[in-house]
Structure formats: structure tokens, C-alpha cells
Amino acid sequence: MTDVRYVAIGDSFTEGVGDELTDDTGVTITRGWADLLAQGWADAAGAPIRYANLAIRGKLAWPIVDEQLEAALALRPTHLSFNGGGNDMLRPRTAISHIADAFSRVLRRCDEEGVQLILLSGADPSRGLPLGGLVRRRGDALSAAVVGRIADRPDVIRALNWPDQQLAGPSFWSEDRLHMNARGHHRVAARVLSALDLEPEPTWWDLPHESGTRLRGAAYYRAHVGPWVRRRLTGTSSGDHRSAKYPTWLDVAPGTA
User: Where does the SGNH hydrolase-type esterase domain start and stop, copy by copy (predicted)?
Assistant: First the structure.
């Protein structure tokens, strides 16, 4: 496959939150599965690809579509990946059908522009979250609704992470329990590469677990649940005033991780 131009749109899942690296100057860089996918794609294909990532943390499904989709299509990609709805699921009043409509819009626009859609479902964080049962039920409903929208479209590339019970385990999640860590992001990247009929690095499926102390009880609520609640009460988002990390094409060559 030559002349691959891959653009990703979405929220914190696609931005890569939870998989942070520190460079030689001490600057923290957010990586994530889409960055890993771009590198793995170039490596597996043995040829450079172009990569852009417009995802911004905290975004709901329809703002992703309204703010990122047309900008992504304007880059004239060959492939576009989309995931959304994780933040919507945490708002019980949001209708599942309304979230699924966003997926249908992305599919329609990709069809119109001749772009290959890569559709992802997010991983299941419910085991570690307060009110995890509610998150699980809504995630099950959203996953079923989205799969139903593409049931007659075998051409859509599917990378479905929600049903992956191993990925739902705590060793794949960062300290906030809502975002995957590097181990989780590598597993997702491996799944997308496999869906593209490319061979991922075998270790990506199950990197060694890095054990460490995890916040529990009141300390966890102070560090992670409290700030989330404050953002809901004030109508703010973790993505406010942030811009996309790769809004234009980045050339990714084999072996340049």
C-alpha cells in the first residue's frame, strides 16, 4: 500500500491521554494508540505514511464531528479513524441514539469524499470507576447501536475494543482509571493494525505490566473524581483552550519511533 494519508479525530482516547512520555528536555508528550498506529503502519508497510491527529480531550461526540471532521477531510486523507461517545456516556441524560447519529454522519461524509473509515470503539473502563455498572450498561448500549449502524457495511474497518475483557483489566489503565496507560494504547494500536491486515509488533498485544502504587479511597476521589465533578458544575472541559497536536501532515518513516 502506497501514498497512505491517515488522519485521526476524536477525544482523549485518540489524543492519547494516559500514555505520556518525557523527552530529553523534560517536556511531557502525549503519545497514544494513534501515534503508535502511524509508526506501526509505516514499519509494517515498509514505506512512509502521512499522519495527522485532530483529537482533543474532553470532547463530546457531536462536537468532534462539528469541529474536527471537515478539517480532517480537507486534508484529503486516504484513511480516517473515528471514535467518540466516551464523555457522552458519563452524562446519563444523553440519548444513545443521538451519539450513534454522530457515527452515521462520519460514515456518510467519508463515503461522499471517498475516504476509508476506520471505526473504533473505546475500551471498557467500568471495572475501576465509581458507578461502573452504569458506565458498563451505557457502553454496551452504545457499542451495540454503533455496530448496528454499520451492520451492512463490511467495507468499514472495525477495531472494536469495548468487548476486549483483557483490555478492561486494571493493568491497562492509568492512575485516573478513565484513560488507558501505555500498555493499553499499545494493545489498541495492535488491534487497528490487525484490522488493516498489517502485522503489529507481537509484544504490543501484551506489554509487561509495570506495577506501581495506585491511589485509593479518598486520595483517588480528591485527585481525579473531584476535578471531574468541578468541570461538570462549571461547564468547563479538560480540552478547553487546547489545540490539536498534529493538525497538519506529519511524515512518518519506517523505523523512526
Answer: 8-186
Q: Are the C-beta atoms of residues 99 and 145 closer than 8 Å to each other? A: yes
* Segment 56-101, tens digit of pLDDT: 999 999 999 999 999 999 999 999 999 999 999 888 789 999 999 9
Q: Looking at the domain assignment, is residue 250 inside a domain?
A: no
CATH of the domain at 52: 3.40.50.1110
Indicate the pTM of the whole model.
Answer: 0.93
What is the number of alpha carbons within 13 Å of residue 203 lying toward its C-beta? 4
CB 212 within 8 A of CB 24: no
Spatial CA neighbour of 31 closest among 50, 51, 49? 51
Q: How does residue 193 score in pLDDT terms, banded at 50, 70 and 90?
A: very high
Query: The domain containing residue 110 runs over which residues?
Result: 5-215
- List, for residues 169-190, the tens digit of each pLDDT value: 999 999 998 999 999 999 999 9
Give a yes or no: residue 241 inside a domain: no
Residue where the block lists cell 483529537: 55
Taking each helix axis as running N to C, give the angle between helix 182-195 and helix 33-45, from 0 to 180 degrees, rounded to the nearest 10: 40
Number of domains in the chain: 1
Domain presence at residue 228 = no
